[in-house]
Amino acid sequence: MHGLILRTFQVFIEDTYGPKTWGDIAVGADLDLPAFEPMLNYPPETYSALIGAAEQVLGKPAEAIWEDVGTYLVSHPNSEGLRRLLRFGGVDFIEFLHSLDDLPDRTRLAVADLVLPELELTDSGNLQFGLRVGDGLPGFGYVMIGVLRAMADDYGALALLDTEGGHRGEQILMITVIETAYAEGREFELAANTGGSEG
Amino acid sequence: MSALPEEILHLICPLHLLLDPTGHIRQAGPTLHKISRERMEGARFLEIFEVFRPRAVTSMEQLLQTEGRKIRLRLRSGVRTPLYGVLVSDGQGGAVINLSFGIHVLSAVRDYALTSSDFAPTDLAIEMLYLVEAKSAAMDASRSLNTRLQGAMVEAEERAFTDTLTGLSNRRALDTVLERFKRSGNPFSLMHIDLDHFKQVNDTLGHAAGDQVLRHVARVMTDVVRQDDIAVRVGGDEFMIVFGKLVLPDRLSEIAERLIRRIEEPVIYDGQTCEVSASIGIAVTAGPVDDPAELVEQADMALYASKRAGRAQYRFFAGPPEGDIPAQLASK
Predict the structure, then answer these.
(1) Which CATH superfamily is domain B171-330 in?
(2) Are the C-beta atoms of B66 and B23 separated by less than 8 Å?
(3) How does pLDDT run across B155-187, given as a tens digit for each residue?
């Protein structure tokens, strides 16, 4: 399991619920060290132990936690770097949706050994889309629901999201874009304003 | 060019220019309007741009001669961002030029507040910006990991019980061992060993030769002592050996003699012969020890007696010093 995924989960918990809650989850998951390094690899079972402990400590089903992770990745200030990277995908929400097929490849360009499940968008017309989320990372479909909801806000679009299970760990998300310019949206300049490190 | 309406260029080459046979700009792409404060249409191309590679260009005639080759140019006013370009003659005396920011795309985007729509949809500029941000984020994460790992390494070294050069135990290990003997009350003896002539080796043949000698000495010690004895490099060219449950003077003398003899075997370093010897001081417990430091001090005093007596020998500590009389020492 890539450290970046586990680290993301850690900072999500710390930024949302505080370090004490993270400490409780780390104990619950029986971690050797209560912190993940984003550039190291960990045994695969760490992930499920972590999710199980988080369900216990937060008293929430895993699906809801994953969705919150997705929202966090786009909307929290500590995750601004990732939100910017996602915004490079397109000038509006529709173009962004069409860029999702490339997301696993884009991710690999940045971090060569980070493999994300396949994504495939189908355009059914009338601003209705389906997104097939491949298997390989449990919960990734729910994370994508959170990401898409937050990205719609980011672009100022109004979209409805729903999900159904697919074959063998696959998941199908249904996206209905009600309006592409519903609200102002957040600012995005191509040039990173610091000119230095981002992240 | 008449086959294609010129407006097509605005979408697929937003950084293009059409030149008249006189060298005046007839049409400029939309992104060029963002990077120049002056109006481009109607102006002479070479008055707005300075072409400096492959060579300086001063006339339309010279400009047309660059056809098909990469040229480098910059705006004469404003930020003067460097640009890359290629010129194709239009067959009627004029030319089409397409420009690109090339590697300077990062600063151009910042300086002119460019957006995605300022680039052709097929342009890789946006991908390049994405990659730069993604890679610097990944690099930051790697760098901070490296910094933490380095900190952990230093910490681990500080907590280590091994001397990294010789593989023997270090002073921290010695303290732990002495503490253990104090607690157990078991008899033990200490040998304090200091190399003779080591400084000369270091000074004349260099530190690498000195290090080789230290490793040789460490090997000798490991060979000569029993498995449970502990050989320690306490610093520089000073060593200490702790012999658990061994207090027989005859046996210790034998070990000391053998150590000196083996240490004196020449070491060849880089074709040069390094020769050192050793002076040894020995202290033996007479009963349970309250303060191991006392025994260390006794071994130290015996060592100095060996040194004073002419080096390359060993001495037992035989009692506390009295007045001005040197420490009473049993000779070998």
Answers:
(1) Reverse transcriptase/Diguanylate cyclase domain (3.30.70.270)
(2) no
(3) 887 788 999 899 999 998 999 899 888 888 889
In terms of CA atoms, which chain A residue is nearest residue B136? A197
User: Is the Cβ of B138 closer than 8 Å to some Cβ of chain A?
Assistant: yes
Residues sharing a CB contact under 8 Å with residue B26, sequence separation 6 or more, in sequence order: B18, B19, B20, B41, B94
Residue A85 sits at the chain B interface (C-beta within 8 Å) = yes
- At the top level of CATH, the class of B8-123 is alpha beta
A190 vs B129, B136, B141: nearest CB: B129
pLDDT at B164: 87
Average pLDDT of chain B? Answer: 89
Q: How far is CA B59 from the centre of its chain?
A: 53
B20 is catalytic: no
> Is A199 in the B-facing interface, judged by CB distances under 8 Å?
yes
Which candidate from A37, A81, A190 shows the least CB-CB separation from B145? A37
The predicted complex's ipTM stands at 0.78
B131 at interface of A, judged by CB pairs closer than 8 A:
yes
Q: How far is A98 from chain B (nearest CA, A)?
A: 14
pLDDT digits (tens, 9 = 90+) for A126-175: 999 999 999 999 999 999 999 999 999 999 999 999 998 766 789 999 99
pLDDT given at position A50: 96
**Cis ω on the peptide bond leading into residue A19 (within 30° of 0)?**
no
**Of B329, B325, B136, B160, the residue nearest B233 (C-alpha):** B160
Correct CATH for A71-179 of 3.90.1520.10, 3.30.360.10, 3.30.450.40, 3.20.20.70: 3.90.1520.10
Domain ranges for chain A: 3-60, 71-179
Return the pLDDT at B329. 46
- Catalytically annotated residue among B194, B237, B300, B324: B237
The pTM of this model reads 0.67
| Contact criterion met (CB < 8 Å) for A198 and B133 | yes
A194 touching B, CB under 8 A?
no
The single residue listed with the structure tokens 């060290």 is A33
Give the per-residue pLDDT at B116. Answer: 85
